[in-house]
């Protein structure tokens, strides 16, 4: 790149190409609607830049030199590629698309949410592929968003990165649940629970998802100067309800998440005696895809799936 002459513009390359094709200064001037002296001046500049006459007199007019002929294909390739840079992107047609959508999400979402997202994407763009990435300490989602390796992140952190775009999806009120015949559940006839009971019961909690951040529950308790007794940490949130059925553990989570398991598992839920704010889920994406039509369509499908969770 350092050997390129300064002030080399695309128009000069276009003149070079036309001169080599037309072999006539007057015809090039006519095609470009420019005065002939201007094209002649450009030819002089091109000769100076290349160190070659480019066009010389032949038996029937001007002909390209041997070096000039070698420049014809590169000049055309440059013009074609430059034209491709500024071709207006065709609109995204999901029914005809064959792209891959990458979504990073935790596994403690409402059980129906991601299935609904996948179903919507399959209906709307059957030729496309969907890849779900598990959020965890090993996933550098900030880099992957900026590099285009993932399209969006679904999360519920207290303070999402300010430089990312965000749209809210849904809120999930916080409750706690345990095995219906656990010692505490048998002892407590109603759903009343004291703060002391809540903090002293053995809790199961999801493993650390982000470095230095242990989740919305413990982060909120820490700000209130409280600490619960976490007896078990698990990265497999989907199996935690089954852990409850064989232990004395307590799970604090969103109501929408646990309602699916309450239908089939012997669980009892309690109103948490501490006023936690609801879990707020949102989707995050990078500025680089903010105006992209396919990404807008993807975010619309995710938002629609979230709305479908809300009680009518």
Automatic annotation (TrEMBL):
Highest taxon, organism lineage: Bacteria
Gene3D superfamilies linked: Periplasmic binding protein-like II (3.40.190.10), Winged helix-like DNA-binding domain superfamily/Winged helix DNA-binding domain (1.10.10.10)
- The portions of this protein that span the membrane are none
UniProt domain HTH lysR-type: residue ranges: 8-65
Could you list this entry's UniProt keywords, alphabetically sorted.
DNA-binding, Transcription, Transcription regulation
Give the protein family.
Answer: Belongs to the LysR transcriptional regulatory family.
For this entry, the protein name equals LysR substrate-binding domain-containing protein
Question: Organism source for this protein?
Answer: Massilia consociata
């Amino acid at each position: 790149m350092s050997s390129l002459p300064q002030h080399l513009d695309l128009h000069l390359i276009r003149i070079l190409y036309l001169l080599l094709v037309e072999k006539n200064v007057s015809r090039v001037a006519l095609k470009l609607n420019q005065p002939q002296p201007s094209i002649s001046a450009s030819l002089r500049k091109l000769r100076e830049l290349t160190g070659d006459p480019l066009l010389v007199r032949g038996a029937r007019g001007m002909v390209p030199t041997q070096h000039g002929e070698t420049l014809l294909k590169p000049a055309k390739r440059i013009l074609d590629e430059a034209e491709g840079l500024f071709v207006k992107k065709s609109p995204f047609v999901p029914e005809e698309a064959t792209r891959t959508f990458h979504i990073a999400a935790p596994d403690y979402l409402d059980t129906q949410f991601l299935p609904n997202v996948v179903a919507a994407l399959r209906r709307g763009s059957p030729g496309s592929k969907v890849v779900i990435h598990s959020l965890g300490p090993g996933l550098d989602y900030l880099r992957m968003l900026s590099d285009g390796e993932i399209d969006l992140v679904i999360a519920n952190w207290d303070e999402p990165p300010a430089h990312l775009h965000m749209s809210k999806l849904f809120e999930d009120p916080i409750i706690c649940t345990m095995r219906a015949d656990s010692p505490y559940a048998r002892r407590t006839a109603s759903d009343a629970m004291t703060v002391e009971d809540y903090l002293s019961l053995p809790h199961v909690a999801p493993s650390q998802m982000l470095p230095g951040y242990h989740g919305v529950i413990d982060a909120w308790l820490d700000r209130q100067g409280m600490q619960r007794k976490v007896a078990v940490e698990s990265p497999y949130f989907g199996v935690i309800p089954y852990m409850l059925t064989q232990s004395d553990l307590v799970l604090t989570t969103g109501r929408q998440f646990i309602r699916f398991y309450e239908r089939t598992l012997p669980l009892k839920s309690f109103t948490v005696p501490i006023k936690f704010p609801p879990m707020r889920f949102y989707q995050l994406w990078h500025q680089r895809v903010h105006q992209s039509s396919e990404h807008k369509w993807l975010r619309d499908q995710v938002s629609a799936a979230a709305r479908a969770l809300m009680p009518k």
